[in-house]
Fold this sequence. Notes:
The complex is a heterodimer.
Chain A: E1 3-7, E2 10-13, E3 19-26, E4 32-38, E5 44-52, E6 55-58, E7 65-70, E8 73-78, E9 87-94, E10 103-105, E11 109-113
Parallel strand pairs in A: 2-11
Antiparallel strand pairs in A: 1-3, 3-8, 4-5, 4-9, 5-6, 7-8, 9-10, 9-11
Chain B: E1 5-6, E2 9-13, E3 18-23, E4 31-37, E5 43-50, E6 55-58, E7 61-66, E8 71-76, E9 85-94, E10 97-100, E11 104-109
Parallel strand pairs in B: 2-11
Antiparallel strand pairs in B: 1-3, 3-8, 4-5, 4-9, 6-7, 7-8, 9-10, 9-11
Amino acid sequence: SQTIHQWPATLVQPVGSPLSLECTVEGTSNPNLYWYRQAAGRGLQLLFYSVGIGQISSEVPQNLSASRPQDRQFILSSKKLLLSDSGFYLCAWSAGTPMNTEAFFGQGTRLTVV
Amino acid sequence: GEDVEQSLFLSVREGDSSVINCTYTDSSSTYLYWYKQEPGAGLQLLTYIFSNMDMKQDQRLTVLLNKKDKHLSLRIADTQTGDSAIYFCAESISDYKLSFGAGTTVTVRA
């Protein structure tokens, strides 16, 4: 069966510091991978998605970047965090076929920028 | 999430039925989903319905789909305290993208 791992679970970082959140998927190959952000009291905002190694699509301009160095690894990064980067970050994967569009989520990372 | 709309809050008494409503905009969506998010956790796929279906029942959950009105609902029968969570409606807008609503916070009171 497929599993998705996301870490760390919580993170407190000072403004201006770098960020690296990691997500890995097991039990499937060539998944579509996603990073979402959930701000307090708001829905999910899609930040990045990737349909293959090295292929990253950005949905919104921001202070963050994503990379996919391996088939089942997705990394969310920032060189200098802003206060507005605080939020709950969720990694997800999907098979990405017409009959399998559902997304499966990791447990999330609570990021607080201070 | 602006293409998918749902009310933000629902309060229900334990043992009653909960009905969470959602409207979507993409008439070509193949699947529509309901996800559940418990505090501090990721989203868990609760159920889904294929676009050519009107209804799907799974134990205490009933999903109704009105394609004409682009309206989706989730009914939870005999609501329990463990059902307290945020429920997200989502539509598939392509093979690799889902569009989510803002989430409905369901509070179950004794």
